[in-house]
Amino acid sequence: MKVYPFFIPHAGCPHHCRFCQQQWLSGHSAAPSPEQVAGELPLLLPEQGDGEVAFYGGSFTLLEPALQRDYLQRVRPFIARGQVSGIRISTRPDAIGEEQVTRLQQGGVTTVELGCQSFSAEVLAAVGRGHGPQSAGRAVALLRSRSLQVGLQLMPGLPGGGPREALQSLRHALDLEPDFLRIYPTVVLRGTVLEDDFQQGRYRPLALDEAVELCAEMLWHCREAGVPVIRLGLQATAALVPDQALVAGPYHPAFGALVRARLWRRALATVLAGQAGAEVRVHPADLSDALGQRRGNRHYFEERGRRLALRCDGGMARDHFAVDGRTYALQAAAVFQPIPTLS
Ligand code: SF4
């Protein structure tokens, strides 16, 4: 679904999560006024379409109620004309109650994204979220009871967390049966409390390869559960570079491609074990993921004394590959262990 985003950085939010610097993340320093939103929509939207206008970057349901209504009302005429099908907002799990949901629905909101980040009480406390892990379950149940679509956001690698915690948080998130997930490995941004933690040696972010490996495993579990992951890693902005916003952490402008390539590597390594030099046929659209960024998967096999011989075949199904006349599903070949028991 096409999304037409407006960023309201940090608007409405009285909290100060250790990792948060919405201005860098969104690339916008101030929220547009409702009048500005109304002025930009005719330029953004098609004559007919089923996308959603989105308000991202803050805690929408913590804005003044009159301002929430004003933003939403500016979009309503475009929904009525069929130029867009609804509105998406992002907010905190503890900022969703009966009153807020009624206001959202009356305003035309169809999808709510909840910044859960983690389901570990220790991690949520360590980053100063100001809510516990139960908030998300309550919010999802309420949103579902009103037939709203729900997306959940997770941040592996937060202080006090790690790969095991990230996988257990994912288990909690999947058990809530969201419509989609976003996964953003934690990076250290300039001007955050986390930057101070990092500089003082109190916080070590995930290394890029560690984050790629972890997110490949998370993506695999999401696919097993049938939950789409609509974003892996932070959206590239002009400011997300080392001498500006980025201090440390597993940021890569093509992080999602690295993760998909890692799944391919895992699947190919399983099937190609003992089949040195065998030709692998893939759909042309899968070639770059199978090969990996900068041919990383080919180098990986070469370093282990094996040759990865890939050939495009338009007759192959997506996310499948064939070796020696036998076809394999990527998901079935790239097997991971079940997520450890929840604690
Ligand atoms: S709740 Fe969201 S907007 Fe508010 S400080 Fe935390 S991450 Fe930033």
Short description:
The protein is of the alpha/beta class and 343 residues long. It has 13 helices and 13 strands. The strands form three sheets. A seven-stranded parallel beta sheet has the order 1-2-3-4-5-6-8. A four-stranded mixed beta sheet has the order 11-10-12-13. The protein has a two-stranded antiparallel sheet with strand order 7-9.
What can you see in these coordinates?
This protein is an alpha/beta fold and about 350 residues long. The protein folds into 2 domains: about 5-255, Alpha-Beta Barrel (TIM Barrel); about 260-335, hypothetical protein PF0899 fold, CATH 3.30.2320. About 40% of the residues lie in helices and about 15% in strands. It has 13 helices and 13 strands. The chain has helices at about 20-25, 35-45, 65-80, 100-105, 120-125, 135-145, 165-175, 195-200, 210-225, 255-270, 285-290, 295-305, 330-335, and strands at about 5, 50-55, 85-90, 110-115, 150-155, 180-185, 190, 230, 245-250, 280, 310, 320-325, 325-330. A 7-stranded parallel beta sheet has the order 1-2-3-4-5-6-8. Strands 11-10-12-13 form a 4-stranded mixed beta sheet. β5, α7 and β6 form a beta-alpha-beta unit. α2 (about 35-45) packs parallel to α3, α7 runs parallel beside α9 (about 210-225) and α10 runs parallel beside α12. The longest helix is centred in the middle third of the chain and has 18 residues, at about 210-225. The radius of gyration is 21 Å and the shape is globular. The model has no long low-confidence stretch (mean pLDDT about 95). The structure holds iron/sulfur cluster.
